[in-house]
Write a structure and sequence with these properties.
198 residues, 2 strands
Length: 198
């Protein structure tokens, strides 16, 4: 398996791909929502089913792409692996720098395994604003994975914020009876934590 992964240069593209795939999926879900925005009845149900299937397929693809990290990771080697670096905001010294270590490997694999299961868990219970929910789940995936693979502190902060925004809306729109209270509390605590990180 390692030879196959090396032959396709897996370690050079896997981490940015794990961030791009859900963004592309969210854009597809959004574009699809524009085509069914005035639909009713059976057409609306079919459009919602398409959003669910598309999101699930994107997240399964994400898991399949990430599973190669298990084979390509060298536990005997110290330091970051599967690194990817691009210049980003030179004046601030910020770089788009990604990498994994033993802990982030486990968190990435856990995230890519649980997100499709989370979509399956909400398959029938999410009945309003289905496209928005699934688009936000994909953006949440980007934020979580970005937090786990960021090697630059500014990139970590940006990904942390990217994760919080969809979570706020998911709690506030699709939460339980006290969802507004919960989302405001979530917002206050996480923003306070974010300010401390700055």
């Amino acid at each position: 398996m390692q030879a196959l992964l090396d032959s396709i240069g897996y370690n050079s593209w896997v981490l940015p791909a794990l961030l791009v795939i859900p963004v592309a999926g969210a854009l597809l879900v959004w574009a699809h929502s524009r085509t069914v925005k005035d639909a009713t009845g059976a057409a609306l149900a079919a459009g919602e089913r398409t959003a669910r299937v598309l999101t699930f397929a994107v997240l399964v693809l994400e898991f399949v792409v990430s599973i190669g990290l298990w084979w390509s990771f060298d536990a005997a080697s110290s330091g970051w692996q599967a690194t990817f670096v691009l210049p980003w905001i030179d004046s601030w010294g910020a770089r788009f720098s990604l990498g994994i270590d033993g802990l982030s490997l486990m968190m990435v694999l856990l995230t890519t395994l649980l997100m499709p299961l989370a979509v399956l868990g909400g398959w029938t219970s999410i009945s309003k604003k289905v496209h928005a929910y699934h688009g936000l789940m994909l953006l949440l995936t980007v934020g979580m994975l970005g937090v786990f693979v960021a090697r630059d502190l500014f990139l970590f902060y940006v990904m942390w914020e990217v994760m919080l925004i969809p979570m706020y809306f998911i709690i506030g729109i699709w939460g339980g009876e006290r969802r507004i209270y919960a989302s405001l509390k979530f917002f206050i605590y996480t923003m306070f934590g974010s300010l401390l990180m700055l």
